[in-house]
Design brief:
Order of helices and strands: HHHHHEHEEHEHEHEEHHEEHHEHEHHH
Number of helices: 17
Number of strands: 11
Shape: flat
Radius of gyration: 27 Å
Structural class: alpha/beta
Helix content: 40-55%
Length: 478
């Protein structure tokens, strides 16, 4: 594991550099601003700069505000991916963070501490913004530039497997290796997609798809690049669906991504234009905020709904023999199984035959109280626990069982892309379509979930939550 550990250590050190650099420069920026405030006459009651800088309020501010800025940097997503950074994205992220920090500092500490001349007040705010942005961005740019030079000179490489073994895959690898400035990929071998014919005489090893997990562990693989040589979307998407379980970045060319009948969003451009299909179109800051809201709302919901849980549990126990909760295996983020938890709405051993069955409005397995719970989506309330554990999100594609996924993917290969995000308690498919009673209806609902995937945003999540609340209170759950 030496290579993997070496890269992980480099990534860890890189993240530490960014965090320490941001903390030091945020302190410097705030200290410099206090000096400017004093000299511009925005401070009264102090006879010297030293007495002002050593006053209790300024010292407390020197501790509090840089830490507050660090929280903004964390939520901005800047520390999510530290190995390969876009210079433009870095500049925009730093500018946005600086604007947010400036506004927070103004409303928390400076709104009543103004000179009184409008032009001077605006000048003070602008100086604060320039100091925060200039100090932080300077160090960030230096760290990023050094890392970029290490990658381009091949001193820092990322062990990579190419998914595909035909001529297109080999030509792509040769193209990467022939670049004067390295994009950072160190090709360790190829993985054969069923139906392809491996190129003979290829010096690099060619592996089977079934041994991919072992290969990734033994070869310390960092990234996967999908380069199919055959125009067979079904086989390729079957292969991609298996890749999600590895938890590694999955890159694919925009040309092939177009064939999935899904809009292309090129989020990572480094040497060769590749689409990262292992991550959603939502920004890193959006993902961080979304997860924070998931945790916060789940904790509040679990606490506030304790009386409801107790009442529902007693009714279930008194009206139908069997357990209160129903656990069922579903497939979630990165194609990994988890146990979804619900209030039991069906009779005990509803699937005693062992074969999964979809329910309908007239399903005799549903208990009378279970029908009421489904109508108002009460049976889904325990899933706040799944959200808190990180297995689900408040909003996301509804998770399915592997039995049905294996039937959906041959008919709609792009379904595999849903495994790049956490499944949700509610989804666009649930509010626009509802429960599916057969495979055809599941396919219709998947179209809405794919639409959500391509338009993920916090605003859309809020809209879906509002629609869900409306459905719950109007009893249109079934």
């Amino acid at each position: 594991m030496k290579v993997r550990l070496d890269i992980n250590n480099k990534a860890h050190r890189q993240r530490i550099k960014y965090v320490v650099g941001d903390l030091v420069m945020s302190n410097l920026a705030w200290f410099s601003y206090n000096c400017v405030r004093y000299h511009m006459g925005a401070v009264i009651g102090h006879t010297s700069l030293s007495s002002y800088l050593t006053s209790n309020m300024v010292v407390l501010g020197q501790i509090f505000f840089p830490l507050m800025m660090m929280v903004t940097y964390i939520f901005s997503g800047y520390y999510n991916n530290v190995c390969r950074k876009s210079r433009v994205q870095e500049l925009l992220t730093t500018l946005a963070s600086s604007i947010i920090n400036t506004l927070m500092i103004f409303f928390l500490a400076l709104i009543n501490d103004v000179i009184g001349v409008r032009g001077s007040d605006y000048e003070m705010i602008l100086i604060l913004l320039l100091l925060l942005f200039g100090c932080v961005y300077l160090v960030r740019a230096i760290i990023t530039n050094r890392a970029s030079n290490q990658i381009k000179s091949r001193k820092w490489t990322f062990p990579t497997l190419i998914i595909g073994s035909g001529s297109a895959a080999v030509n792509f690898a040769n193209k990467l290796n022939s670049r004067r400035k390295s994009p950072g990929y160190e090709i360790k071998g190829f993985v054969n997609i069923p139906g392809e014919h491996p190129v003979k005489g290829n010096p690099l090893p060619c592996y089977d798809l079934d041994e991919l997990q072992e290969v990734c562990d033994n070869q310390d693989i960092w990234e996967l690049i999908v380069v199919p040589s055959r125009d067979d979307t079904h086989q390729t998407m079957n292969a991609i669906n298996k890749l999600f379980a590895l938890g590694l970045p999955i890159m694919i060319s925009p040309e092939y991504f177009n064939k999935m009948q899904t809009p292309v969003t090129i989020s990572d451009i480094y040497g060769e234009p590749l689409v990262n299909i292992s991550r959603s179109s939502m920004s890193d800051s959006g993902k961080n905020i979304k997860r924070a809201l998931d945790v916060l709302i789940s904790i509040i919901a679990l606490l506030l709904l304790l009386p409801v849980y107790a009442i529902v549990a007693m009714i279930i126990k008194s009206t139908s023999p069997g357990p209160i909760f129903y656990l069922q295996e579903r497939i979630g983020l990165h194609n990994k199984p988890f146990k979804i938890i619900k209030f039991r709405s069906m009779v005990k051993d509803a699937e005693a035959s062992g074969r999964p069955q979809l329910s309908s409005d007239s399903d005799p397995r549903i208990t009378p109280f279970g029908r009421f719970m489904r109508k108002y989506r009460i049976d889904e309330l325990p899933q706040f626990w799944n959200v808190l554990k990180g297995e689900m999100s408040l909003v996301g594609p509804r998770p399915e069982r592997k039995f049905y996924i294996d039937q959906i993917i041959p008919l709609m290969p792009s379904y595999a892309l849903l495994h790049q995000v956490r499944p949700g308690i509610t989804s666009m498919g649930m509010v626009k379509f509802g429960y599916a009673k057969n495979i055809d209806e599941m396919l219709e609902r998947v179209k809405y979930d794919l639409m959500y995937l391509n338009n993920m945003s916090l605003l859309n999540d809020i809209k879906i939550l509002i629609y869900t609340i409306k459905i719950v209170f109007t009893g249109r759950g079934m």
